[in-house]
Design goal:
five-stranded mixed beta sheet
């Protein structure tokens, strides 16, 4: 992973591996934002799970920016529910596929879903 300075002096952390589902990470108020992208399944989830768990260990609010998620399965759902036990997990900008998964399973009643990142971070 590399550490770069983004707009407004925020520190962005991005994964170097092109196949990693882990994108940028940064603080936003009292929350920590983690971007997910691509397919989230058993094979690709470990880096994202580690980032979310680490964020939950040091921040009360963790926001998953899921706009770039193209696929998510039950493994992803399990990770989200585990992280929800550790912190106030919010999912921002979920892709249609992820939003459907959360809705069909009722997980959207446990994990707060926000249409955009600004709304998710406004309540920090």
């Amino acid at each position: 992973m590399r550490d770069t300075t983004g707009v407004g002096g925020r520190a962005d952390i991005a994964a170097d591996a092109g196949s990693s589902p882990l994108g940028y990470q940064h603080a936003s108020g009292a929350a920590w934002v983690v971007e997910a992208r691509g397919e989230l399944d058993l094979d690709t989830l470990p880096p994202l799970e580690a980032a979310l768990s680490q964020a939950a260990a040091s921040h009360h609010i963790v926001i998953l920016d899921a706009a770039g998620v193209t696929f998510a399965d039950s493994t992803c759902l399990s990770v989200l529910l585990r992280v929800r036990q550790l912190a106030d997990l919010r999912v921002a900008r979920p892709s249609a596929q992820l939003a459907r998964l959360l809705s069909l399973t009722g997980a959207d009643r446990v994990v707060t879903v926000h249409a955009d990142l600004d709304t998710a971070t406004a309540e920090t």
